[in-house]
Design brief:
alpha/beta, Rossmann fold, 2 domains, seven-stranded mixed β-sheet, about 15% strand, SBP_2_dom
Length: about 350
């Protein structure tokens, strides 16, 4: 009987010790999940960069720059976005990032108004919110990173088209990506101002034509334009996909000497079309630098530092900061031509 009691007492003590260990481990795990903002690997800042969509060359190049900035600056970069240029998908991506408790969300909105509620939610949970590439609702963001001065860029594209047409009169058309994309709309507005003020004999055959950020759509829309407008002399194409689709249609129809095409295209994509004249000039900037700049400024924002006009950003160059203190301009555009397109690797 005595041996039995000793055995039972030993079992009770053993069970008690095991239960205590299990309770201690569970409590520690639970406390880790609920104890405020999570940090990245090794306590690093977590910066989320959300493009309009993933998988196209422009945003692939931006991703490369963003990831490199993360390595150089010692922060964890999450580069994620929808597979289509769709605002509803972007909202879901941002909801997921909020649940991950990132420190900063930088987004290029497909539809600024559609993202306002979820960006407000992020701010309410202590996440810094900024935009890049495309402006979001300015009442929500703390920093707005632009690749270019939008109006000046639009005017430059319009003047380039007139130069390539070789005439200050005639019919032209405008292709765009998504109709709600704020940056594309700003560039188009700048181009229209330039035409209205300085080239009154240039006629738009229609309102801007959406291509949904898809090359086959831009190609087909251009074929439709050619068919319905036999006197068409030029096309301005906005979004990095639209100029390539337009050039593909011009190339197929052998209209290089009749219809000029200029647009916001990447040099690597543009090269074969520039070489045969179906695309006259691609006008853009270096998207890898834009991705790098976005992460660099996001880190500063999380650290409580605001950008300054004329500030030198390593691997990017000098930036311009407007008087509002939050609008940042990366720099002037680059013209990609048959002569220089091969000098770039994106």
């Amino acid at each position: 009987m005595k041996k039995f009691l000793v055995t039972m007492l030993s079992l009770v003590l053993m069970i008690g010790l095991l239960t205590g260990c299990v309770s201690s481990n569970s409590s520690s795990k639970s406390g880790g999940e609920d104890s405020g903002k999570e940090s990245g690997k090794d306590g690093k800042l977590k910066i989320a960069v959300v493009p309009k969509l993933v998988g196209i060359p422009y945003f692939n190049a931006s991703e490369k720059g963003a990831i490199q900035a993360g390595k150089d600056l010692g922060v964890d970069v999450i580069y994620t976005g929808p597979t289509e240029a769709d605002a509803a998908q972007q909202v879901k991506v941002i909801e997921d990032l909020i649940s991950q408790k990132v420190d900063v969300i930088a987004v290029a909105p497909n539809d600024p108004a559609a993202l306002t509620p979820v960006l407000k939610k992020a701010k309410e949970q202590g996440i810094k919110v900024m935009d890049w590439d495309t402006p979001a609702d300015q009442s929500v963001v703390e920093l707005s990173v632009h690749q270019i001065d939008d109006e000046a860029f639009g005017r430059h594209i319009a003047k380039s088209l007139i130069e390539k047409i070789g005439s200050e009169e005639g019919d032209i058309a405008i292709l765009t990506g998504g109709l709600s994309a704020a940056n594309l709309n700003s560039w188009i507005d700048g181009a229209k101002k330039e035409l209205d003020e300085n080239f009154p004999k240039i006629k738009l055959v229609s309102d801007k034509i959406a291509t949904d950020e898809k090359q086959p759509v831009a190609y087909q829309k251009t074929l439709d334009l050619i068919k319905s407008n036999p006197e068409l002399k030029g096309i301005m194409a906005y979004s990095t996909i639209a100029p390539i689709g337009a050039a593909q249609a011009i190339q197929e129809k052998g209209l290089q000497d009749k219809i000029a095409v200029v647009g916001t295209a990447l040099p690597k994509d543009s090269k074969p079309f520039l070489e045969d004249g179906s695309l006259d000039v691609g006008i853009l900037w270096e998207p890898d630098k834009l991705g790098y700049l976005t992460v660099a400024l996001a880190k500063d924002l999380a650290d409580g530092k605001k950008p300054e006009n004329g500030q030198e950003v390593e691997n990017v160059g000098k930036i311009e900061v407007w008087e509002d203190g939050k609008t940042v301009i990366m720099g002037p555009p680059t013209d990609f031509t048959a002569e220089n397109a091969g000098d770039f690797n994106y």
